[in-house]
Sequence to fold (413 residues):
Amino acid sequence: MNEPSNRPPQALFDAIKKDLAPVKPLAPPWRRALFVVPVALVVMGMPFLYYRLRDTTDLGATLGWMPVAVQILLAFALLVFALREGIPGWRASAGVIFSLCVVAYTVQIAVNLLIFLRSPASAGGSGVAMWMQCFRVESLIGLPMLIVVAWLVARTLPQRPWLAGFLAGTGAGFAGDASWRMFCPYSDPTHILLGHTGGILVLGLTGFLLGYLWSLVSQRVDATSL
Amino acid sequence: MAQDEGSAAHLEELMVGYQNGNLDAFEGLFATLAVPLRNYLTSLVRDLHRGEDLLQETFLQMHRSRHTYTPGRPVKPWAFGIARHVFLMYRRSAARRARHEGLAREDLPEIPVAGLAEFFPDREDLSKALSGVPHDRREALLLHHVWGFSFREIGNMLGVTERAAKLRAFRGMQNLRQTFGVKRGTP
Fold:
């Protein structure tokens, strides 16, 4: 049998030679995640145009702006992990990702429960309309961030695009929720779970679906291009 | 002083050259990485010719994705990560394939297990024994003992923790020991 050669086969060599051009290496995931910041600032600032900021005097710093900052940091971490999925040989373990998601959801739910205990406010009869509104606004805030991260991930080589999409969607959802909570005056658990946590979950699932669809498309494109 | 061919620093230099559009750097990368990647892919598909096809596909994919390499990071885990991606794509598109083909004798890697070598009668037996090791364990076992990756690097490639990678390799080795009837503590 022929000994395999250490020189590239001629067809491969010719294909590479024909297509070879300098490329700019990608920045590390945390720096690429910063691309989302301008978009995040715009969409997270949009509610200021239409809604009044919630009065946080009864909440104090520990339940006011501090959890918002913590939640934004967790959202950023989720986006970084989404971007890391696109770098071959640099995947995070399922345990780390699962733990991060659990921590993020726990923080979001716990903060809202504490807010409810400190300052209970129910939407009353208009509950369904209110949680629908929160769900809608939160999704609208998160969607542009999800699209930006999805675009950044699509330029790489994710082995688990569905997971990258899920992390991107969840991160965008948490960022959106962090800002929107400062406008939403209601704190009853049903409203929070359906309107706020539900919005985050739906964005995560949207990202998951986007990633899955992208993987189907990219397989076909890979099969036909260099 | 010239760097050793195949050393991490040499590979990084070649990879950066490749990103800058240097064809010689591509040839250097191929010369250095083709053998371990071919062996890795062959161990995954257990078919020498299919392994050769996937090797070429891996280099094409490396070419398409060369911008995803971050200068300063080790090249081998990146390249093996791409090879694994190519294998998974192949496995997805050809879900059902003939099994029990076994590793090619010529390409079968030596497993440097001190003191155990004499218990392996020949490569044929080792090939059969490796075939009996579950896929995920075999992969971790070969990545560590044959291609010399640290468990941290293997974890990053497979998307598992360092500890899980270590456990998989350990259990894979246990499977091999059981197959050859080597008890714990045997030299």
Summary: Chain B touches chain A through 49 residues (CB under 8 Å). Residues 111-187 of chain B form a domain with the Arc Repressor Mutant, subunit A fold (CATH 1.10.10.10). Helices of chain B lie at 8-19, 23-45, 48-64, 75-93, 123-131, 135-145, 151-158, 162-180.
